[in-house]
Amino acid sequence: MTGTNLAGAALEVAQKRETQGLNHTLGVHFTKVEPGLVEAEMPITPALLQPFGFLHGGATIALLESVASAGGELACDLETEQPFGVEVTIRHKKSGREGDVARGVAKLAERKPSSKAGYKLYWDVAAYDGDGDVISDGVIVVKVVPKDYLAQKLAERGQA
Asked: Ranges for the Thioesterase domain (predicted)?
């Protein structure tokens, strides 16, 4: 979290995501977390390259899903709602190279009611290289579901 100017809920979201799991493994560092906009950086290290020496597309997708998921978390009430990533549509345009830093950006484009419960958040996402060129872009959908609806569904399945 060195050099981050985040506070409050934004800082909590970033700290939780940077210190554990895949984000920690990939070295993802959140630089901006605010309602409707999340940005993070990921160093391109040898561990993130595919066999031909370019940034692995899966690592780029993980960065983009991380910024959209953080945005979904910040957009909902975690006491009563649970966010889930439900759809990823990404186009790869260029690859990053070792030693560079990929920057992932998620901007909230739309919020729509879900057909069954809750709502969906549509995030326009893009990953950029150090020159500002787009590496990958697309849309990630985060569904936000009421926790009481989830509990009801688990009870119906005998899993409560």
From this structure: 52-115
The CATH number assigned to the domain holding 14 equals 3.10.129.10
Please state the domain count of the chain: 1
Concerning whether 110 is annotated as a catalytic residue, the answer is: no
| 18 located within any domain | yes
What span, in angstroms and rounded, lies between the C-alpha atoms of 51 and 160? Answer: 45
| Cα–Cα dist 143/149, whole Å | 13
Residues spanned by the domain of 75: 8-156
pLDDT digits (tens, 9 = 90+) for 77-115: 999 999 999 999 999 999 888 888 999 999 999 999 998
Cα dihedral sign, 42-46-52-57: negative
Describe the chain by its helix, strand, coil percentages, rounded to 5.
Answer: 30, 40, 30
12, 18, 39, 65: the catalytic one is 65
3-state secondary structure of 5: coil
